[in-house]
Specification:
Helices cover about 45% and strands about 10% of the residues. The chain has about 425 residues and is of the alpha/beta class. Helix 2 crosses helix 3, helix 5 crosses helix 6 and helix 7 packs across helix 8.
């Protein structure tokens, strides 16, 4: 997917789109005045004609030309004073991307512009600023951490994440209940399992170090406390280190880090390169027990051998007595309608994110931990873990016949 050039302003991007629309209308090039008029017609509330004319003129000023890769001028046999302006191949790709994204999130844009644009202008300005705002990452690719944040009621998401979520939820519309409630409850139950497992590690195992791999965005305050907030009073000198491959996630964790001493500097890291994380100075003493959280991550590792290798490398690095808290998407005894919906949801998710996921049986996942000690129930649906741990009145229990869409487990590293 072609990225939008970060050095081009709104009007310059608009010129590319205008030329592309003209090209699609079977007019492959425009005269200077025609281009100015066409662009000016769509920005009457933004600028005046002279400003637009000046912007177009700068395309061909050798000292100011910013678009040599995207537009070119050609001889005009009908008016030699007015060269014809047309797109290059690279310019056409950028314009196609703009049009595609415009179509994709146009319905969302009025509300989104109020959120992401500090000075409400036109829908176009809202779109461009949303697309070019890098604070939350790629605005044209949905990201699992932002999708989860949206489902949990946070504000660290973009319009494309909302669209991806709605598309994903629509795959479960064959259930007897509202899909959003079903999926939101499953996400909340999963988060409750992760937090309760960490509290168990601090309270029962007296482990003070926590390494959260694939941490995702901090949980919205109104939805409850994050790991570092839960363990800070349960064990002496606790340390929590979030790791995520998305720079936006890491920035958000580091933004709130100054408010407490438990949360250490968040790091960028990908579990597919787990050795780079474990061999770097991330503020964890691997000579002492560590609780590693690896939740809602492994189902995005599509190769079984690669997923198993990640677990082995963790096991080899961690000191005896360490805990590994894991979860994996989808249960091993799915209802037929849930399995069908999940399979469709994976296809929908990949369409928006370019990232696939893999359904695995409980036996496959359990085999990765054969040399570790499973605590209590081993691998169970995350909803069943809530019955093992202390009940949580803040999490609405799943119905008896509901599938929690994930199973989880807590495993202790045995001495060699």
């Amino acid at each position: 997917m072609t990225a939008l050039p970060g050095d081009l302003n709104e009007r310059e991007l608009m010129i590319l789109e205008t030329l592309y629309k003209s090209e699609r209308a079977k007019k492959e090039s425009l005269q200077f005045d025609e281009l100015v008029a066409a662009v000016d017609a769509s920005v009457k509330n933004l600028t005046n004609r002279s400003t637009m004319s000046q912007t177009v003129q700068q395309l061909f000023d050798d000292s100011k030309n910013k678009l040599p890769r995207y537009v070119e001028k050609d001889f005009n046999p009908h008016n030699q004073r007015q060269p014809l302006i047309k797109l290059t191949g690279a310019g056409r790709e950028i314009a196609k991307r703009i049009e595609s994204d415009s179509n994709c999130i146009a319905a969302e844009l009025t509300a989104a512009a109020q959120k992401f644009v500090t000075r409400p202008q036109s829908l176009w300005d809202g779109l461009v600023q949303v697309l070019c705002d890098g604070n939350l990452g790629d605005p044209c690719r949905a990201v699992s951490s932002r999708i989860c944040n949206y489902l949990l009621g946070g504000d660290c998401y973009l319009p494309i994440d909302r669209l991806a979520t709605e598309a994903l939820l629509s795959e479960f519309n064959d259930r007897n209940e509202e899909p959003r409630l079903f999926y939101q409850r499953a996400v909340e139950v999963h988060r409750a399992f992760v937090k309760k497992a960490c509290v168990y590690a601090a309270t029962n195992e007296k482990i003070s170090q926590f390494l959260d791999l694939g941490a995702g965005f901090p949980e919205p305050t109104e939805k409850g406390r994050n790991i570092f907030e839960l363990v800070k009073d349960l064990v002496k000198h606790p340390v929590v280190v979030p790791v995520d491959k998305e720079p936006a996630v890491v920035r958000e964790w580091n933004r709130i880090r100054n408010a407490n001493k438990v949360l250490r500097e968040a790091r960028i890291g990908d579990v597919l390169k787990i050795e780079d994380i474990l061999d770097s100075d991330i503020g964890i003493d691997f000579g002492k027990p560590v609780t590693v959280v690896l939740c809602a991550v492994l189902h995005f590792v599509q190769d079984d051998a690669e997923a198993k290798a990640i677990i082995k490398k963790l096991r080899d690095k961690l000191a005896p007595g360490s805990l590994l808290i894991i979860s994996h998407g989808f249960t091993w005894e799915p209802r037929e309608d849930t399995l069908a919906g999940s399979a469709r949801a994976i296809k929908s998710y990949k369409r928006f994110t370019s990232v696939g996921a893999k359904l695995r049986s409980i036996d496959v996942v359990r085999s990765w931990f054969s040399d570790m000690e499973p605590l209590m129930g081993g691998l169970l649906e995350t909803s069943k873990w809530l019955k093992i741990f202390a009940p949580d009145s803040t999490v609405k229990p799943l119905k008896r016949d509901e599938n929690s869409l994930a199973y989880g487990g807590v495993f202790r590293i045995r001495p060699f």
